[in-house]
Amino acid sequence: MLIGVTLGRYLAARFLRMILGVFLTVFALVYTLDFVELMRRAGDAEGASAAVMAQLALFRTPAVAEQVLPFAVLFGAMAALLQLSRKLELVVARAAGISAWQFLQPGALVALGIGAFTVGVYNPVSAELKQRSTEIEAKIFARSSKAASGKDLWIRQRSIDGQAIIRAETAVEGTTTLAGVAVFTFDDAGAFTQQMQAARATLHDGYWELQDVRVQAMDQEPQSYDTYLIASTLDPSQVRQRFTPPESVPFWQLKQTIARTERAGLDATRYRLQYDVLMARPVLFLAMVLVAASVSLRFFRFGGIGKMVLGGVAAGFVLYVARQVMEGLGASGLVAAPVAAWFPAVVGSLLGTLALLHLEDG
Question: Which residue has the higher pLDDT, 347 or 143?
Answer without folding.
Answer: 347
